[in-house]
């Protein structure tokens, strides 16, 4: 009787999420969270983008300047070029939610250190106190949004999928919270990607828990924080549309979801809806086509193939925009069709990866080294299903950002976080079983070893040698070529895997939406 009772109790806990009341689980999650926070604090003690590099500095100064602008001039003028808001000096180029976030952080900085956000006189402000406060705004944003969303996802993912091994939950949460790429960019280089990515994780978890309306609100907020979140839009649209088609009243469901999205956008854009010109002013800042199809040495299709095809010289910007649009649509179409045809939780996660990789590889301008954080997010969420893909993409995402992080003098945190990642991934007794991981063999294993050796050699060469004067960016170009080749390989594999998903409990659960 006691065994039956215990078994019944366990089954109930797996079904309703009550397992979270388990003291050991709470303690494990708490330890991981505190450790992840400490790692961020240590990384934040290092240098940042544009430190001491006058007159325009870098992303740190951009974020600080947005706080200065949003604090000192009316919201209607945040995106307008004027004598008090020179858009050529780090003008706002993200959606309104980023501006509101900058304003909230500006209030915090103004309370403790008014000089750091004073109009005009604070340009290039780099005091130790100012840096401490700026770093604190990122840490608090990370904990409040990204950490909370990650824990929410892990609870929902393992509850829905029936994966009730606590060690796998802890392993997965640690990989999400201690991802080296996001920590280096947000807490080293200095950005707030944790907000848009956290909102996206929350939206994904809401979909997995059948809360589509909440998912629409969260993803709309993510879109209004960073426009690059649109990398995930095809996956969200196709998955939700596929589920709407299977709803008792498809038209009503589409209307419900559409009204939630439109309502969220109206609330966010309200200060700019007083005229069409005001909306156009904001939109023109979000899509700077005049910059060209790519910048720097980013490991995407256009920049990589420019070694052979000089896209910018051969074609005008309007033509390149059409090429980019066509290639991006072709890249996302197979994944969208699969989700409309047979929406499933697991298929949705693959669709997020495929959609974001297509945008990263083919989209116009919105791509820079840091954009690889977007495809890396769904790969991290798929870590239990695709551990090798996740490990491989994480490593080459780091490699693709290595030149940027070297310029920011973040080599030591780079190496330390890479080692930490490897240690967490290979924790004995916790990482996925060999049956799930399907280790490569033969020629595939040999090829992977050769690629890893090449990447290790590139790290050493980039740090120790100088490129030929005739080719000053030779090393960046080689890193870009190697990284892009791996991203393309992963994109092909992931698309094929999404289409080969077998009919399983993941799909059966969503054939009929209650």
Overview of the molecule:
The protein has 514 residues and is an all-alpha fold. It has one domain. It has helices spanning 2-16, 23-44, 59-72, 96-112, 128-161, 166-177, 180-190, 193-208, 212-223, 233-245, 250-269, 276-286, 301-305, 311-314, 317-341, 345-362, 373-381, 387-407, 411-425, 434-437, 442-464, 474-499, 505-508. α15 (317-341) packs antiparallel against α16. Mean pLDDT is 89; it is low at 1-21 and 503-507.
| Radius of gyration based on Cα positions | 23 Å
Number of strands: 0
Amino- and carboxy-terminal Cα gap: 35 Å
Largest sheet, strands/sense/barrel? none
Q: What's the average pLDDT?
A: 89
Globular, elongated, flat, extended or rod-shaped: what is the shape? globular
The class by helix and strand makeup works out as mainly alpha
Number of separate domains: 1
Q: Into which percentage range does the β-strand content fall?
A: under 5%
- Number of discrete helical segments: 23
Helical proportion, percent range: 55-70%
What is the succession of H and E elements? HHHHHHHHHHHHHHHHHHHHHHH
Which residues sit in consecutive blocks of at least 5 with pLDDT less than 50?
1-21, 503-507
């Amino acid at each position: 009787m006691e065994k039956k009772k215990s078994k019944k109790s366990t089954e109930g806990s797996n079904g309703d999420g009550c397992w979270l009341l388990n003291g050991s689980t709470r303690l494990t999650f708490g330890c991981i969270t505190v450790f992840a926070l400490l790692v961020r604090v240590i990384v934040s003690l290092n240098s940042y983008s544009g430190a001491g590099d006058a007159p325009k500095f870098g992303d740190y100064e951009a974020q600080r300047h947005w706080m200065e602008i949003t604090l000192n001039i009316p919201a209607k003028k945040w995106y307008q070029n004027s004598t008090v808001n020179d858009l050529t000096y780090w003008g706002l180029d993200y959606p309104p939610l980023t501006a509101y976030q900058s304003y909230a952080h500006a209030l915090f900085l103004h309370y403790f250190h008014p000089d750091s956000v004073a109009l005009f006189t604070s340009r290039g402000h780099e005091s130790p106190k100012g840096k401490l406060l700026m770093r604190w705004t990122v840490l608090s944003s990370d904990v409040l949004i990204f950490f909370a969303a990650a824990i929410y996802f892990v609870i929902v993912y393992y509850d829905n999928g029936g994966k009730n091994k606590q060690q796998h939950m802890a392993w997965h949460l640690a990989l999400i919270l201690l991802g080296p790429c996001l920590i280096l960019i947000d807490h080293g280089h200095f950005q707030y990607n944790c907000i848009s990515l956290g909102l996206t994780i929350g939206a994904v978890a809401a979909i997995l828990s059948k809360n589509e309306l909440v998912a629409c609100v969260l993803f709309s907020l993510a879109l209004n924080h960073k426009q690059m979140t649109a990398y995930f839009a095809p996956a969200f649209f196709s998955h939700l549309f596929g589920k709407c088609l299977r709803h008792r009243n498809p038209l009503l469901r589409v209307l419900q979801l559409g009204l939630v999205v439109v309502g969220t956008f109206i609330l966010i854009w309200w200060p700019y809806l007083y005229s069409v010109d005001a909306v156009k002013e904001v939109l023109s800042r979000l899509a700077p086509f005049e910059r060209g199809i790519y910048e720097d040495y980013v490991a995407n299709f256009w920049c990589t193939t420019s070694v052979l095809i000089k896209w910018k010289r051969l074609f005008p910007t309007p033509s390149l925009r059409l090429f980019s649009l066509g290639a991006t649509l072709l890249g996302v179409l197979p994944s969208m069709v699969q989700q409309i045809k047979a929406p499933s939780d697991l298929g949705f996660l693959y669709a997020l990866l495929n959609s974001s990789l297509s945008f990263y590889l083919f989209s116009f301008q919105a791509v820079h080294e840091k954009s690889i954080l977007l495809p890396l997010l769904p790969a991290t969420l798929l870590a239990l299903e695709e551990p090798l893909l996740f490990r491989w993409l994480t490593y080459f995402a780091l490699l693709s950002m290595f030149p940027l992080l070297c310029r920011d003098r973040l080599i030591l945190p780079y190496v330390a976080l890479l080692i930490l990642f490897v240690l967490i991934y290979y924790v004995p007794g916790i990482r996925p079983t060999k049956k799930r991981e399907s280790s490569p063999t033969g020629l595939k294993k040999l090829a992977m070893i050769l690629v890893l050796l090449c990447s290790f050699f590139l790290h050493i060469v980039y740090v120790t040698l100088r490129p030929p004067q005739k080719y000053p960016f030779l090393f960046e170009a080689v890193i870009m070529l190697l990284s892009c080749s791996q991203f393309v390989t992963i994109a092909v594999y992931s698309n094929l895997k999404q289409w080969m998903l077998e009919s399983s409990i993941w799909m059966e659960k969503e054939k009929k939406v209650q």
